[in-house]
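Person: I keep going back and forth on a fold encoding question. Show me how you would write down a chain together with its backbone fold. Please set it down just below, with no commentary around it:
Helper:
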Amino acid sequence: MPGLNVAPDGDPASARVDCDSCEEFRQGEAEANAERDWSRATDCRVLLRRHQDSADCVAPEPR
């Protein structure tokens, strides 16, 4: 299910829910890291942070 993260303790109730765009940026970063494309991974992190700082992000605070 997009947007649902499992918390480290395994309890979905304490997991954070992100918007679809947040998930896409995180997925892009993971793929870039797997390909050892550090520049693209950094770009994804920057774009994620900008997105989260914008009014477009529907993820609840805190990040």
Q: What stands out?
A: The helical segments are 20-34, 38-53. The radius of gyration is 12 Å. Residues 33 and 40 are 8 Å apart (CA to CA).
